[in-house]
Amino acid sequence: MVSDFFMEKFLQSYYDYLLKEKHFSLHTVNAYVKDVEAFLNFAEKDTTDIDKITYQHVRNWMVDLSSKKMSNNSINRKIASLKSYFKFLYITKTITSYPLQAHKALRTKKVLQVPFSEDEMKKIDRSDFEDDYFGFQNYVIILLFYTLGIRKSELINLKRTDIDLYKQEIKVLGKRSKERIVPIMSSMLPVLKEFLENRKNQFGEDYNKNIFLLKNSKKLNQTFVYRLINNYFRGVTSKGKKSPHVLRHTFATHMLNAGANLNTIKELLGHASLSSTQIYTHTSLAELKKTYGKAHPRFNTGEEDL
């Protein structure tokens, strides 16, 4: 455990800063603080003076993590937490120098996220789920991930007041508490209408509760949602990665393949910048090449370019 000195003087104020000023989700805040706690535990063996922590302490921690077979991706994520923490200390004048000024992220292999195909998504059928309220709820959850492109945390936190069937739109609370409106496609309206009626019969018309609930009336958690997606898609696809984020990726890729422009997809996904949305053009390029190969008469002739 981090000493009371470190916790009381530095971590608590950082925790409040992330939660109240940066408006990070509780899950993100806890992850950041957990990383910082682990580092402070490591550095505390050498110094309890926060202003005497140097980049060498950070380097030593990285070596220690690497010796425990931690991947470069995971180490980079932990160092990102440290950068945020020490920037906070520097801005608030708690420390006189920023120890990660010269840090460069470790090299990592870029793994291309493979979306589900349109054929795979067409396999989703209501009959695949249990014939009860919670089976129907699981079906609706998967459809919303695919038709809205929302994040896992955004779906978990949806409330009854966020859904407007008359206007055919859903209000989504994204990162840093940024709201956006996502349209509901016409084919989803009868499904949502039926689900909300069932929900009313199951839990009562409580508009302050989350839309999706567990059997004990508590809201869904991250683990439940991940397992739902992973377990269901085992029977649909042979692709390695099966997660809510892959469904979000699938939504964006299929939109792009159908002709939607990047700015539209950016707004639907709630991205702060277009550069975040452009990652979906990589998988879309494969579809572009496939279409090009089928459509162009000279593509497979083997003749030289004119």
UniProtKB/TrEMBL annotation:
Domain Tyr recombinase: from-to ranges: 111-293
Protein name as it appears in the record: Integrase/recombinase XerC
Keyword Cell division: yes
Source organism per UniProt: Paenimyroides marinum
Pfam families in alphabetical order: Phage_int_SAM_1, Phage_integrase
GO CC annotation terms, alphabetical: cytoplasm
Domain Core-binding (CB): start-end pairs: 5-90
GO biological process, one term: cell division
Main location (coarse class): cytoplasm
Keyword line: Cell cycle, Cell division, Chromosome partition, Cytoplasm, DNA integration, DNA recombination, DNA-binding
GO MF, any single term: DNA binding
Subcellular localization, as worded in the UniProt entry: Cytoplasm
